[in-house]
Amino acid sequence: MEVRPILSVLLRSKTAPLLVAIQVALSLAILANALYIVNLRHASSARPSGIAQERDVFTLTARPVTKATHDDALAQQRKDVEVLRALPGTASVTWISQMPMSRSGSNSGFALDRRQARESALVSIYFAPPGAIKTLGLHLLEGRDIEDGDMVDFDAEGDSPTAKFPKAVVLTKALADDLYPGTSAVGKSIFYGTGDDAVEMRIVGVVDRLQSAIAESTRRGEYSAILPLAMDLAYPKFAVRAEPGQRDRLMADAETALRNVSITPRVITTRSVEEDRANRYRNERALAWMLVSVSALLLLVTASGIVGMTMLRVAQRRKQIGVRRALGARRADIVRYFVTENLLVTTAGVIAGVALAIALNQLLVSLLELPKLPVAYLGIGAVALWGLGVVAVCGPAWRAAGIPPATATRSV
Amino acid sequence: MLRYYLMLGVRNLRRSPILTGLMVLTLAVGVAASISTLTIVHIMSGDPIPHKSDRLFVPLVDNGPAKSFVPGSPPEDRQLSYRDAANFQRSGQGEFRTAVYDVTGAIESARPDLPVEQVNGLAVDSDYFTMFEVPFLRGNAWSRAEDAARARVVVLSRNKSEKLFGGEDPVGKDVRLFGQSFRVVGVLDRWAPVPRYTRLVNSTGGALSGEDDIYVPFATATDLELYNNASTSCHDDNRAPGYRGFLDSECTWIQFWFQAKSTADRGALAGYLDNYVAEQRRLGRLPRQAPPLLFDVMEWMRYMNVVSNDARLAAWLSFGFLVLCLVNTTGLLLAKFSARAPEVGVRRALGATQGAIFRQFLVEAGVVGLAGGVVGLGLTLVSLALIGRQAKSLSVVTQMDWAMLALTFVLALVASLLAGLLPTWRACQVTPALQLKSQ
């Protein structure tokens, strides 16, 4: 085709095309990295917590004003569960020590062998009774739920963990797979801590997924264990699953019910799992929005740059276009000329942009511990900018094609 | 002459209004994106107490178990055990010193119609208020004697005081807190340092947002067996049961601060810490061969990563965007200036030097930049408001200050001058004879 003449024209007056190519390159570099980060954050915040039908589940915390004795606290806890269970609209209820994504909870080290120097994994610890798995709607892959016989009544004021601690534990699949790669974890033993005092526990079941209280974005966010241990917690917490559509009404009812059931005053707060999720990922969402808006502005600015350059070049060459038209060139030929010219410029920008995107990613990797950019994003960015270039050039090119051949004959 | 050029520049803004509008808008958008992300980083990394941030020190000793020690690695935790904190309290080092941890409990108001409310706050020593220059609205901090006597005294935040007592002066009154009677000794005035450097590890909103409702003496809080309401890290699960066992354990949960008389005393404090660690080692504690660490306020905030990587990332990418806008503006200025070649030809023919042309066009580019700065400032305020609404924890860091305001204009001006360099140089190259002939 007519690439050679276009190229020689471009090389003769290269400032404006060069500026456009630089813009395309910068756009591609920023766009590819920004899209990748947005996607990373989105994937992180869309991860399942393990709780089935999250919108039906909420938590209540009932914190007594004065500390009760161990036995009284547990009796109150049992009573609270009964009260909540009796409420109309309650599908299932359990007490539990912490909730996924709630950003507050406890961790402990688990070890494969007590003689290890370091623990094998840092695990988010859920203390809960039998049935908690059902209330949360966790998917039991292997083995069994914890049972009443597994429950240990632990008084933090008098009992020592070495003497009195659960002997059964349910792990998440991610944790089980990493501790026992290739084999089933059920029936194996695991140590709570290391050293002579580490408690040996037996893995009785594996659930598909239960995120940690912090829901870290790394694999650690999937390392959780459910331990059948009853203790008087500083924040007695209950998880309630409502019948579909009843959650909001039940949240209000449950709060009133718990307020009325105890004689001693308590501070009662409720929070839905949806709120926990929104709070956990708020900053991720803010960053993603910010990057999406910068990307949109970026494309807009680049498009305006391309439109501007094409208009300038059309204005400079009105006469030549008229001559070409007079010599028999069709409108389509004129449009094709400018589109081809633009494609050449964009392509040069894209090639430079790919290199720049990789360099920018290297910088971000070294400064901010970002993962490496997958090649696919460079492809997406390149296609987006080619497309943008063609769309942006079409308008001015079409107007150029409308220049009448008679222009050529006027005032030479 | 410069004033004349400035006037010309302003007048020329109206020439080819679409092109000019596009330039101003492009610059404004680029500047707004950079300034709003930079504002966040700027406030996050600001010095909350500039005149003495180099005299306030956080000590850190590594009390982790020897078996899992990797030489050269940082301490296991960013807090101290009770044993170390109590030893530092008694040390007499520095001018002032305080231990800090998070407490939570229920407060019962004098008015029976109000429900029991949960309050979160800090257990601190009386020196805390002097060290961090905490402003009091009413009353005072408690005394060192009251620290020693484990007095049941409390300082309320202004918000909490207004909520519990309305407009009344609560100083001297009793409130029921942690199930006991506490005497209110003081009410703080508004005090919200950003970042919340005195207690970065907290459970009341993190390093940037949130507020402490109450302050009680550290010794009183431990006497009432209050556990820490923020991150607590324990490695020895074989500790003795009960609260006494917790205090005697190597669990880490306390933040400690020293205030030195002058910056020069840092060496003495570091020396004391070295001796302390050696002495504890002789007593059979601190088995890791790790040197103790000492941070001043700014070092401590860096160590605690107060500026999130996300904030830095956003700032970096926004600057990339500004460069793009700059290149775009260069193209637009080129178009605008090249249309003025005949004018340049006439001026040159009438005796203007190339330098004069250069100055005139660069001033014109600068005027475009200033206009971009004005529009950019508006856009920055809008985008900061939007970001603040998105994330509550970011709302305190989306406040513009004078430095950022000035930077907005400097950035817009520098960007426009840089963008104007090439087009201006091109304008200078105009050959007068050629232009005059074609007219």
Outline the structure in words.
The complex is a heterodimer of chains A (412) and B (439). A six-stranded mixed barrel of chain A has the order 3-4-10-7-9-8. In chain A, strands 2-12-1-13 form a four-stranded antiparallel sheet. Chain A folds into two domains: 172 residues, no CATH class; 227 residues, no CATH class. The longest helix of chain A is centred in the last third of the chain and has 38 residues. Chain A has eleven helices and 13 strands. The radius of gyration of chain A is 32 Å and the shape is elongated. Chain B is α+β, with helices and mostly antiparallel strands and 439 residues long. Chain B has a six-stranded mixed beta barrel with strand order 3-4-9-6-8-7. In chain B, a hairpin with a 2-residue loop joins strand 7 and strand 8. In chain B, helix 12 packs across helix 15. The longest helix of chain B has 37 residues. The chains are: A alpha+beta (412), B alpha+beta (439). At the A-B interface, helix 2, strand 13, helix 8 and helix 10 of A face helix 2, strand 3 and helix 11 of B.
Report mean pLDDT of chain B, rounded to a whole number: 89
Helix and strand composition category of chain A: alpha+beta
CA distance, first residue to last residue of chain A: 29 Å
The averaged pLDDT of chain A comes out at 89
The structural domain count of chain A equals 2
- The backbone outline of chain B, from C-alpha atoms, is elongated
Q: Write down the Rg of chain B.
A: 30 Å
Structural class of chain B: alpha+beta
Q: Report helical residue fraction of chain A.
A: 40-55%
Distance between the termini of chain B: 27 Å
Query: Count the strands of chain B?
Result: 11
- Number of DSSP-assigned strands of chain A: 13
Quaternary form: heterodimer
Largest sheet of chain A, order of strands side by side? 3-4-10-7-9-8
Q: What's the helix count of chain A? A: 11
